[in-house]
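Pinned message: reference record for 5-methyltetrahydropteroyltriglutamate--homocysteine methyltransferase
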Amino acid sequence: MTTKPAAAAARATVYGYPRQGQDRELKKAIERYWKGRVDADALRATAADLRRTNWHQLAEAGIDEVPTGDFSYYDHVLDTTVMVGAIPERHREAVAADPLAGYFAMARGTQEVAPLEMTKWFDTNYHYLVPELGPETEFVADSAKQVAELREARALGLTARPVLVGPVTYLLLAKPAPGVAADFEPLTLLDRLLPVYAQVLADLRAAGAEWVQVDEPALVQDRTPAELNAAGRAYRDLGGLTDRPKLLVASYFDRLGDALPVLAKAPVEGLALDFTEAAAGNLDALAAVGGLPGKRLVAGVVSGRNIWVNDLGASLATLGTLLGLADRVDVAASCSLLHVPLDASVERDIEPQILRWLAFARQKTAEVVTLAKGLRHGTDAVSAELAANRADLASRATSPITRDPAVRARAAAVTDADARRSQTYPERTAAQRAHLGLPLLPTTTIGSFPQTGELRTARAALRAGRIDTAGYEERVKAEIQEVVSFQEKTGIDVLVHGEPERNDMVQYFAEQLTGYLATRHGWVQSYGTRYVRPPVLAGDISRPEPMTVRWTTYAQSLTDRPVKGMLTGPVTMLAWSFVRDDQPLGETARQVALALRDEVNDLEAAGTSVIQVDEPALRETLPLRAADRPGYLAWATEAFRLTTAGVRPDTQIHTHMCYAEFGDIVQAIDDLDADVISLEAARSHMQVARELAAHGYPREAGPGVYDIHSPRVPSTEEAAQLLRTGLAAIPAERLWVNPDCGLKTRGWPETRSSLENLVTAARRVRAELPA
Ligand code: GLN
Ligand code: ZN
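Predicted structure (tokens):
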């Protein structure tokens, strides 16, 4: 490789690192602080230790420029709210009295004040706290956290680059504050916000920052011309400042599209772009705008979101192409490494051969360093790394784990007919009615019942070997007995077994499917101190034996009423796992669907007449760009139908989703061809029922009448009133009565009262129906 000036300058960097520490020390320290067991100074000391450890880890691995300001006690968007002084009115007093306690009050609420709302960070499983803004919002710069963390890193002798959430993204992620008109657009506050960013930039420069990274991931979504204009204005203004560090505007998760020419033209010194598969199109688009002459390009070629080893040869080829397109090319992970676990090398239960296919944050950091070295000194300088990488990729590509001929042959043989039920809904519904003999407005629940402390203790005892499998299963059966007898006594029409054997549903199924791996330490922040350990969908998927049949049939043996079988759907199984990146998602979904189809068919064969396949993740997996959505929805709905279409016409298929706004996927929901869908609706006063009706949804639906997110017990009349509202949109023959979602996070006392009221409400409204 000839060493061009851009190559000679190549540096390795990342935008952020897992915050929690090797043993989730941060989580533990924060929770101890909340319980009053350690004071704020002790928590701050733990946090500073973790930051230092991370920076050392990065520097020792060979990262040339470390990020600062990416650390957070809870969430980086909340940190930005503090940085710009947009503290909601109701939290100001608490924040003024004690900034740290006030910060956590904004995140979690207190007895007196509600927290900020939480929602997903783009299409990741990380949740941020939504800024609340209004026409009265006044911003005030508070650069203390950013400046302090920059100083810490510099004191260690490191070259550090502060990372900020950009002003355009911050405003686009915000919502109107309580009491502000719903059509208020936070982006109208841009001119008021930019001076605050100017102040923060000046403070960071004074503290020694040569570069500051400003993240604008919102620009990878479809944006209106007005929004693109605002972005152009923001970076013209910030770029025009004299007292500022060099600016690196970063984007990730998808292609920049129309925002690319806007940023390329802006008077900033650098752009960071995602060049992974997820953002396909950036490379061509960059060439089309003539590259970034005179600018620094940071190339995110190592995925910051999946956990697979990078194809270093392919990345070096991409980097080689980029050399001609910018003044200087640096190498990075595509986004903050916050979204992957810390270190794969500590996993003891994964076979060494397979472990070599995995790259968590530490391994990704090493990949970035290798790539930068390869770019600077040519491929010969990294020939050993490249050879080892080629061997790992080859072992993955040819392994029987990723290539199971039986699974592949079966998936290849799928026909349209396999994904279509043998009768239309009107024909099926008659058969189901005759078979099930349910009343009008039938009552049911979404699946889980309260997960008692006893159950969790039993699971822990099983893991620790204090009880054996038989002892654990006795415990689970006792729970099923209780749940079934409660539902019978209360008069619920379609029963469930209560899912006591599952702690996390995706994990429960992943553990039983061949092709999935579990990690021991693969924690990823979901929100605040909540970390999840997503299973790794590594290979071809098959189901060696039935997964749920014995629990459902046990429950059915206890009652004459129908017991609903309960499964997690293929899209959700993918969405809440780390998914393989070596084949299209649709192919992986099809394999999972076929495995679940066997379970559905076995449930039916064992006498189950009602089977629910949950797809709570169908909507959140929707691609960021509208143009990519039809392709996704096509494979997603096919996977659901493939899972469910193998049953007899008189077997009733249910599905469940829990979000109130689903306007943009209502056609896809129709395309699932489920006989019954239950949806979250209580808080939005049955809005979902009206939307379904407006769409002409032809099948049965159960908009939730009990908000399970709150311990509050809805009164009979309140539930009845919601049902009457539902009846205005959906006829009685097609309306079901159920809660919004599963009950596993609720306690027994409120669950009991709420479900009793729900059944009484159904009876009351049934009695009002015209004869
Ligand atoms: N059947 C699951 C339950 O009741 C559904 C969970 C979900 O929708 N997230 O817990
Ligand atoms: Zn739900």
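Pinned by admin. Summary line: The mean pLDDT is 96.
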